[in-house]
Hints:
Blueprint: H1 5-22, H2 33-44, H3 56-69
Protein name: Glutaredoxin 2
Amino acid sequence: MLRDTDDIAKDVEGLIIEAKEILHLGCELQARLVDEALVFSLLRGFCSTTVIQWDSAVKNWLLSASHNTNIPLLK
């Protein structure tokens, strides 16, 4: 599985755009705490790969959530 991480991560790029919509980034609505926790949990592990082209709003949200919760992104 580890050697396939980059291939799996490339498939995740489409989900990052959906995460932006779930989190309501760029609008006045706020995502529910459960939604934020699930998205953070799913996406934090993909920070360890360099093949993903992150949406800047999602990446900034991940960095902020990591800082605010003292939960490191996986590297």
